[in-house]
């Protein structure tokens, strides 16, 4: 069982994703919570974004209710988990910017396979927010992930170029070297 009062993003992700998967709902963790997982707790997001890997929405409310989460607008909240909430933005396909051929990492949790963006795709995701929303904190998050994980820099550079934003890769490398 999970301690909702003190759980980390990683602990809550695994708990919820396993429960959803056992209820036939396949998801991938995206966004800032991925940074929290890959930064080994150096960053905290405050929410978890799950992208559904199916076009169907049926069953999400029921499955979330089974583990104590209630829908409040677009968020799911738990009365004992005041520091984190859950959201299901968008849904298939899984994409970052113009790239919708993302293959998430698979993690085995007690025999159940759940999914998360790879460290490289997490960097691209954070750079997408930096590019499109001018979110400097997302550039910082990309750097944190790169400092703590193996990243395919060629893929990131190519992705930035395909997004017509090669400057974002330059900013990323400059900040990474500082």
Gap between N and C termini: 41 Å
Q: Give the overall shape, derived from the CA principal axes.
A: globular
The fraction of residues in strands falls at 15-25%
Give the number of DSSP strands.
7
Rg estimate, integer Å: 16 Å
Main CATH class of the largest domain: Alpha Beta
- As laid out across the biggest beta sheet, the strand order is 3-4-5-2-1-7-6
The class by helix and strand makeup works out as alpha/beta
Outline the low-pLDDT stretches.
none
> SSE order, as H and E?
HEHEHEEEEEHHHH
For the largest beta-sheet, the strand count, sense and barrel status come to: 7 strands, mixed
Provide the domain count: 2
Number of contiguous helices: 7
What is the residue-averaged pLDDT? 95
Q: What fraction, in percent, of the residue positions are helical?
A: 40-55%
CATH topology of the largest domain: Beta Polymerase, domain 2
CATH architecture of the largest domain: 2-Layer Sandwich
Describe, in plain words, how this protein is organized in 3D.
The protein has 178 residues and is an alpha/beta fold. It folds into two domains: 9-116, Beta Polymerase, domain 2; 119-177. Helix content is 44%, strand content 19%. It has seven helices and seven strands, in the order αβαβαβββββαααα. The chain has a seven-stranded mixed β-sheet. The chain is globular. The chain starts with 8 loop residues before the first helix and ends with a helix.
């Amino acid at each position: 069982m999970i301690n909702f009062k003190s759980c980390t993003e990683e602990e809550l992700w695994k708990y919820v994703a396993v429960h959803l998967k056992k209820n036939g709902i396949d998801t991938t963790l995206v966004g800032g919570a991925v940074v929290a997982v890959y930064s080994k707790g150096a960053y905290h997001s405050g929410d978890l974004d799950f992208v559904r890997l199916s076009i169907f929405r049926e069953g999400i409310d029921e499955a979330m209710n089974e583990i104590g989460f209630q829908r409040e607008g677009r968020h799911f909240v738990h009365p004992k988990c005041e520091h984190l909430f859950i959201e299901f933005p968008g849904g298939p396909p899984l994409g970052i910017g113009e790239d919708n051929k993302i293959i998430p990492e698979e993690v085995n949790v007690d025999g159940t396979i759940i999914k998360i963006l790879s460290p490289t795709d997490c960097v691209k995701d954070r750079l997408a927010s930096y590019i499109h929303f001018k979110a400097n904190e997302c550039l910082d998050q990309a750097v944190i992930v790169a400092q703590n994980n193996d990243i395919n820099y060629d893929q990131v550079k190519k992705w930035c170029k395909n997004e017509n934003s090669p400057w974002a890769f330059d900013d990323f490398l400059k900040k990474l070297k500082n």
